[in-house]
Design brief:
Rossmann fold, 2 domains, nine-stranded mixed beta sheet, 10 helices, binds flavin-adenine dinucleotide
Length: about 325
């Protein structure tokens, strides 16, 4: 019996949030005395820095530019079966979620997605949000194999010590399987403003219309080095471009301050804001889930609060 962690890929390298999964599974490994295999799906993404004496690193020599989910699923499943994995963990990102559920079908395992905590005190219990974050589901694992996908930002990153590159195992894939069915297109557009801003003001569906974004821009101007971003709905409506979307299918942000305006706080949105040093929420619903992850909360209508706040600053600074 063993544990397999499937490394996530971001911008042609291993996503650093992969280390968060290692923290999560260490608890299971210590409890059940199981070896951990870190499975890096592509040979050309520079995963060597993730090799450690504490777990066995295994690299499939597939090519990221020729990404093909069926081929990836085939070889991941082969390795998972060979190491007799009871627990398989992947990151809940658009890339990994493209193929991980299919792996669960292939190896006949249960699949629990979007977990944000894991408890090993009595048996193994994982927790995931439901009803747009208003409720938590606690799922007791009493059958394996099981596949879990972990929301980025949910666990502290694991610190790799005892680097031992000799632990690498490379699985060579036959040449005919290296030619994928589709080209994996990596979006190289990085939005510098969101990466560099000290303060990010996020607009949610509660702003009501594209025109009302002006209020959010006015609000952002109050803070030096600031930028405006939005929830997915705001981008789906076309009020902001998709490179301004924060969340699991958008950007993960790490500003000093994030101010969520009229955003409910779905788990998909929250996954992208956990790196913010301070989170402030303004929402007229006192039970909005965003208040569960905020350091400071303002229960108010943004159309009343923001103009008054700006006016207050104009008269007092
Ligand atoms: C696979 C998948 C991936 C997803 N990825 C993302 C993602 O990356 N990022 C993301 O954001 N979402 C994502 N979503 C969507 C997500 O589930 C939510 O639907 C979305 O985050 C909700 O956006 P919202 O908070 O703006 O809107 P809502 O949930 O509709 O919330 C609007 C909030 O505004 C408040 N409000 C209304 N009017 C006012 C007012 N005048 N003043 C103050 N408060 C007000 C309301 O009380 C409410 O809390 C994803 C969903 C799926 C299924």
């Amino acid at each position: 019996m063993s544990i397999v962690v499937i490394a996530d890929v971001k911008n042609r390298s291993v996503n650093p949030s992969t280390l968060e999964m290692l923290s999560a599974v260490k608890k299971i490994a210590n409890k059940n005395n199981m070896p951990i295999y870190l499975l890096i799906p592509f040979g050309n993404i520079g995963g060597n820095s993730y090799c450690s004496g504490e777990f066995k690193t295994c690299i499939l020599d597939l090519n990221i530019e020729q990404y093909s989910a069926p081929i990836l699923v085939k070889y991941l499943s082969t390795v998972i079966r060979e190491v007799n994995a009871s627990y398989v963990i992947g990151l809940h990102t658009p890339f990994s979620i493209d193929y991980i559920p299919t792996v669960s079908v292939e190896i006949n395992a249960q699949c629990v997605t979007q977990i944000h905590s894991l408890d090993v005190a009595e048996g193994i219990t994982v927790t995931r949000a439901s009803h747009t974050g208003k409720l938590d589901q606690h799922i007791v694992i009493n059958e394996t194999p099981i596949i879990l996908t972990v929301l980025p930002g949910s666990f502290e990153p694991y610190t790799i010590t005892n680097m031992q590159r000799k632990e690498i195992m490379t699985i060579h894939i036959p040449e005919e399987d290296k030619h994928g069915y589709c080209k994996f297109i990596i979006n190289d557009i990085e939005d510098a403003s969101l990466d560099e801003a000290d303060v990010i003001v996020g607009a949610g569906k509660g702003i009501g219309s594209r025109e009302n974004l002006n209020l959010i821009y006015e609000f952002a101007k109050v803070f030096p080095h600031s930028a405006v971003a939005g929830s997915r709905i705001v981008c789906d409506y076309g009020w902001l471009p998709y490179n301004k979307q924060i969340g699991i299918t958008g950007k993960s942000i790490t500003p000093k301050v994030y101010i969520a305006c009229a955003i409910s706080g779905s788990s998909q949105h929250v996954a992208g804001i956990k790196g913010a040093q301070t989170i402030i929420a303004i929402n007229k619903d006192p039970y909005a889930p965003i208040f569960n992850v905020s350091h400071y909360g303002v229960v108010a209508d943004i159309f009343e609060f923001i103009p008054q706040f700006i006016e207050f600053l104009q008269h007092n600074t």
